[in-house]
Each structure stands twice: as structure tokens, then as C-alpha cells.
Write a structure and sequence with these properties.
heterodimer; A: about 290 residues; alpha+beta; Uridine Diphospho-n-acetylenolpyruvylglucosamine Reductase, domain 2; Uridine Diphospho-n-acetylenolpyruvylglucosamine Reductase, domain 3; Enolase-like, domain 1; 5-stranded antiparallel β-sheet; 12 helices; about 35% helix; B: about 170 residues; Ubiquitin-like (UB roll); DNA polymerase, domain 1; 5 helices
Chain lengths: ~290, ~170
């Protein structure tokens, strides 16, 4: 399968990339790792007239903690998230998420920025970013702005980025002392999109939950924040009973449709099970366990 | 509009004026004429088109040739050196790591990259590494054995105390 014709531009700096997008506001797409966009173009589900490849733009692959936030450059590849000591030690849930994105070869090229900007509800990072209350940096003709993950994700394959904006960095608050996160995904086979998946993040003060984040993958038009479950958990002691109730509330926030991966009812039930598991693991990690 | 790109494949530079929409796998097969790299599913699933780009495994059906401009690509044709099979190729021969052979070039390129980073992988690590390469004949058992045999051969070749294993002749 061959994509439709397009013109290709590989600028060496962000300013040129943005001005190119400005010149072609309706018909240009940004190319990062290409592992979602190129398949779409081959199927002719997307046929942009212009592609702006970010591969030569410098400083797009930062991966470091800075002023209380983890900064992930938009061009950081999934494979790097799996091997980075910083991510392994401080953000195991992010490593866990990257490890279940597609397959190892795809992960050599797939990027975190692309995963979010593509805004596919079946992608794994959006829900994790919802749970971790991440934000992104968008660079456009009018300058740079910060967008919270909830504001970034608008609908299926739709973000709040303007046509001349490029997602350049992802910012994740550094973990609080007693906190933990986890990502639990159910898939038919390695490399597949989730039947359903749940990202959970909790912070504790003793046994009491002070912060909770819950994001749901592939059970709605975009990654869903299970707000009712989050609100229920804050101020509660985390135990089997409260986790079970939060998981039930999370499954009510899901909005799945029936498809090849199963009927909606089944997916909702799986959200409940996966939310239980993710919350248990996140709680164990917050208490200092693995 | 065409663009000039140069991609070095197995040490030899290939320069061509191409449309940006040309996929790397077509550049390799049709511009360079190296048909060892196969097109299987054409949808980023099967891994038959796996090649190494700057030593990193990539599904060449999902990379544009223009993205590989200036890169070093290694394909299955680049494995054999001076008439001697690469240990991964020898491993597949010895352990019957293929039946129809369609997935084999991609499978071997993934294995070569794995063994560069992990000279002594466990079965689990091999299975994890090849999880993006599909084989519809062998059930993977012999493929895993082939890769582990290759790992052993490479380790022995690099250990000065062990005798050099017999070379496998290319017919």
C-alpha cells in the first residue's frame, strides 16, 4: 500500500517547522516516529498534502527531571522509556506503559509525543498521562503554551493543538514521597490495542489517600478520567473495600462500544477488574513495595 | 516532486531521486534491488520487512525512504561475510529455524540486534525480542533455539580461550 502524494519537509529547527505549518494550515501533518501516521496514510485514511518531519529538530529528545517535573521531549522513543534508568527507578508505571505499546520493533521508532498528539483513545499513554496529571508544551506561531492533558484530548484523533502548533514536551509532576502508579492492560495478543486498560496513580499520607488519578484506555472516544472514582478515593484509607468501590465507579465512567475486541458490557467489567489491579499495585508501590 | 536521498545499505551507498511517499522497503527492494527483505502484512504487524537502521530494528514498510536519508541500513544480504554465514544464519540452518522462510530475513535481523545488546538472552528475552515478528509455520520453538545457538557461537568466537567453531560453508 502506497500513501497518496505529499511534499516532505525536514526542517532543522522549530521556527522553520512552525512557519511551514503556518503556510499550509489545513493540509500539513507533523511526522514524529510515523508509527501511527504512516499506516493511516497507507490506508489513505489520511492524505495530508505536506509532511513536516521533526527528526532533524534538535532538543526534542530530552528526558530529565527539572524543577519538580519530569520533562519528556516529544521525540523520545518508547524503547528509550523502557531502558532509561531514570524512568525505571522513578517512574515504573511509565515504563510499564511503554512496554505494552505495540511491539518492540515499533517501539524503536514510536514516540511519546506522537502517541499523545495522535489522540487515539486506543493508545496507551493518554490514560497514563491523565492519571499522572501531565501537561504538554505546545510551540506555535504565537509562542509557547502549556496545555493540561484533559484540555489537550478533545475527541477521537482530535486535540486542542492549533494547526500551527507542535507538541514539544510532556511534563509530569515528580512523584510525591508516598506515591505510586501502575498501568494494567488487557490485550488479545502482544502488540494489539487494549480491549481495555486502566492507569492508576495514588499518593498517601500514612494509609490515607491524598491524591488519586485514574485514566481509562480504549473505552470511550478519548482517554477517560474516572473522576467519580478519584473523588471517592481522596481522604479514604486504601483497602480492599475502598479500592473495590473505586473500581466500580471507574467502570461507570467508561463509555465502551461493542466491536471485535468484545461487547461493551464485557469491556466495562474488565475496566472494573483492571482498575482494582492497577489501584492495588499503585498502592503497594506507594507503600514502598514493588 | 521528487527528492534526492542517499541510503547506505550493507555498506554501499544508493542515491536516487524518489517521491517522498516511497516506503523504505520499496527503496530497498526496487531501487537497490535487494529482495531479501520481504513485504508481508504491509501493516506494521508481521515484521517480515524488518531491517536495521543505524543498527536499530525497524519495520521498513512503515518508514519513508526520505526518513532514512543519510542512514546506514543493514538487510539480510549484509549478514554473510566473505562467504561465511553470520552466526544467526548458521543458527537457523542448524536448528531448523525456518520452514517456508518468509519471516526469516526479518526474524534474523531482529535477532542480530538482540544479540548485539544481550549476548546471552534467556528464552523469555528472545521471545520478548521477537514478539514483533510473526512466523506462521514453526511455532517459534526452533526460532528461539536458533537464536540461542547463535548467541552461544558469538560468545565462543569472542572468548579467546575457546577454540574457534567450524565455519559453515555457503553453497
Amino acid at each position: 500500500m502506497i500513501p497518496d502524494k505529499f511534499e516532505y519537509f525536514a526542517p532543522t529547527n522549530l521556527t522553520d517547522a512552525v512557519s511551514f505549518l503556518q503556510q499550509h494550515p489545513e493540509d500539513a501533518k507533523v511526522l514524529a516516529g510515523g508509527q501511527s501516521l504512516i499506516p493511516l496514510m497507507k490506508f489513505r485514511l489520511a492524505a495530508p498534502g505536506y509532511l513536516v518531519d521533526l527528526r532533524k529538530v534538535p532538543h526534542m529528545d530530552l528526558l530529565q527531571e527539572r524543577y519538580g517535573v519530569l520533562v519528556i521531549g516529544a521525540m523520545v522513543r518508547e524503547a528509550r522509556m523502557e531502558s532509561s534508568p531514570l524512568i525505571r527507578q522513578r517512574y515504573p508505571a511509565l515504563m510499564e506503559t511503554s512496554r505494552v505499546v505495540a511491539d518492540p520493533i515499533v517501539r524503536n521508532f514510536a514516540t511519546l509525543g506522537g502517541n499523545l498528539a495522535h489522540a487515539d483513545p486506543a493508545n496507551d499513554h493518554p490514560a497514563m498521562m491523565v492519571a499522572l496529571r501531565a501537561s504538554v508544551l505546545a510551540h506555535g506561531a504565537k509562542g509557547t503554551r502549556t496545555i493540561s492533558i484533559d484540555d489537550l484530548l478533545v475527541d477521537t484523533l482530535e486535540t486542542s493543538l492549533t494547526p500551527d502548533e507542535i507538541l514539544t514536551e510532556i511534563h509530569i509532576p515528580q512523584p510525591a514521597p508516598q506515591s505510586g502508579s501502575a498501568y494494567c492492560k488487557l490485550e488479545r495478543k502482544v502488540g494489539d490495542y487494549a480491549i481495555a486498560a486502566v492507569a492508576a496513580s495514588v499518593a498517601l499520607d500514612g494509609d490515607v489517600c491524598t491524591q488519586a488519578g485514574l485514566g481509562l484506555t480504549n473505552v470511550g472516544p478519548k482517554a477517560i478520567r474516572a473522576a467519580a472514582a478519584e473523588n471517592f478515593l481522596v481522604g479514604k484509607r486504601l483497602n480492599d473495600e475502598t479500592i473495590s468501590e473505586a473500581a466500580r465507579l471507574a467502570s461507570e465512567s467508561a463509555d465502551p462500544t461493542s466491536d471485535l475486541r468484545g461487547p461493551a458490557e464485557y469491556k466495562r467489567a474488565m475496566v472494573r477488574t483492571l482498575a482494582t489491579r492497577a489501584l492495588r499495585t499503585a498502592t503497594q508501590r506507594a507503600r514502598g513495595g514493588v | 516532486m521528487t527528492q534526492q536521498v542517499t541510503v547506505t545499505i550493507n555498506g554501499q551507498p544508493y542515491t536516487a531521486d524518489i517521491e517522498p511517499r516511497l516506503l523504505l522497503v520499496h527503496f530497498i527492494r526496487e531501487v537497490a534491488g535487494l529482495t531479501g527483505t520481504h513485504i508481508g502484512c504491509d501493516t506494521t504487524s508481521c515484521g517480515a520487512c524488518t531491517v536495521l537502521i543505524n543498527n536499530i530494528p525497524a519495520k521498513s514498510c512503515t518508514i519513508l525512504a526520505v526518513q532514512a536519508d543519510g542512514a546506514e541500513v543493514r538487510t539480510v544480504e549484509g549478514l554473510e561475510q566473505n562467504g561465511q554465514l553470520h552466526p544467526v544464519q548458521a543458527g537457523f540452518v542448524e536448528e531448523h529455524g525456518l520452514q517456508c522462510g518468509f519471516c526469516t530475513p526479518g526474524m534474523m535481523m531482529t535477532a542480530v540486534a538482540l544479540l548485539q545488546n544481550n549476548p546471552d538472552p534467556t528464552e523469555e528475552e528472545v521471545r520478548w525480542a521477537i514478539s514483533g515478528n510473526l512466523c506462521r509455520c514453526t511455532g517459534y520453538v526452533n526460532i528461539v533455539k536458533s537464536i540461542q545457538r547463535a548467541a552461544k557461537q558469538i560468545r565462543e568466537e569472542h572468548s579467546p580461550s575457546s577454540p574457534k567453531p567450524e565455519a559453515v560453508e555457503v553453497s
